[in-house]
Design brief:
Length: 101
């Protein structure tokens, strides 16, 4: 089956594509070794961790772990509670750089 491609960004300087059904050899030649960004569609569809890594998992395993989000420290369990109870009127801070160390 041929690779399906969708262009996500093309501003004349940067072009980022989203590709589906790409072989590893194609990825290596066109992206990894060429250092060209790509979004890989369905990359995680068979990844078992996507079913395992739920909010419940992180609360049960890392509840007291301190995380820093937008300059403020939280216990991870408390932050997950805030996220689960967020609303458009009361949004949770966005964890754009959240890392568990």
């Amino acid at each position: 089956m041929a690779t399906k491609v969708a262009e996500l960004i093309n501003n004349g300087k940067i072009c980022v594509e989203k590709k589906y059904v790409m072989s590893y050899n194609e990825f290596a030649k066109d992206h990894r070794f060429a250092i060209v960004s790509v979004v890989i569609g369905y990359a995680c569809k068979d990844w078992t961790a996507k079913d395992r890594f739920t909010p419940y998992f992180f609360k049960s395993e890392y509840d007291d772990k301190i995380v820093k989000i937008q300059g403020q420290e939280y216990k991870l369990g408390d932050f997950i509670y805030i996220m689960e109870n967020a609303s458009p009127e009361n949004p949770a801070p966005y964890p754009c750089n959240l890392q568990l160390k």
